[in-house]
Every structure is written in C-alpha cells, then in structure tokens.
Amino acid sequence: MAREVTHREDGPDVIDPEELDPEYRDGGIYICRCGLSDDKPFCDGSHRATADEEAGVDYKYENDDSEAPRHRIASIEFESP
C-alpha cells in the first residue's frame, strides 16, 4: 500500500545523552522529523534541503529527479476514511 506522509518539521529531534541508558551516552542521537532521511528513524542531514522553503507553500519531495527533487504543489488534499 502506498501512503503520502505530511511532515511539517525542518530539523531533527535531539536526544540528550543524559536521558539515555549509560551504554548509549557517548554522543547525541538525532531522530528524523522531516521525513527525508534515508537512514530513518535517524537523521542524516537531509532536512537541510528544506532550509530555503517559503512559508505557506506546500512542497513534495521525490527521489525520481536528482536535479529537482522538490516540487511546489498547489495543495495537499486528504481523503476522508
């Protein structure tokens, strides 16, 4: 089944090492919130592609076009269940 996922975040969640079990406290862990990471659930820095987005504009990111992976779209329409 295919699914369109809408993300409104433009950066990762940062996990404070002090909140982790001691065995994982050697560095921060970054969780993807933008939906663009190829290493989900972890952030790989792909959110940097959103840095120049305009407020109030909807975008669709696709991996089918390496020269223009981001496209402006008129709107996002949700189907009622």
UniProtKB/TrEMBL annotation:
Keywords: 2Fe-2S, Iron, Iron-sulfur, Metal-binding
Residue numbers spanned by region Disordered: 1-22
Skewed-composition ranges (Acidic residues): 12-21
Cellular component GO terms, alphabetical: cytoplasm
Domain Iron-binding zinc finger CDGSH type: 10-53
Any one GO MF annotation of this record: 2 iron, 2 sulfur cluster binding
Pfam families for the chain: zf-CDGSH (PF09360)
Bias (Basic and acidic residues) ranges: 1-11
InterPro entries: FeS-contain_CDGSH-typ (IPR018967), MitoNEET_CISD (IPR042216)
Gene3D superfamilies per the UniProt record, alphabetical: CDGSH iron-sulfur domain, mitoNEET-type (3.40.5.90)
Entry protein name: Zn-finger domain of CDGSH type-containing protein
Native source species: Halobellus clavatus
Lineage summary: Archaea, Methanobacteriati, Methanobacteriota, Stenosarchaea group, Halobacteria
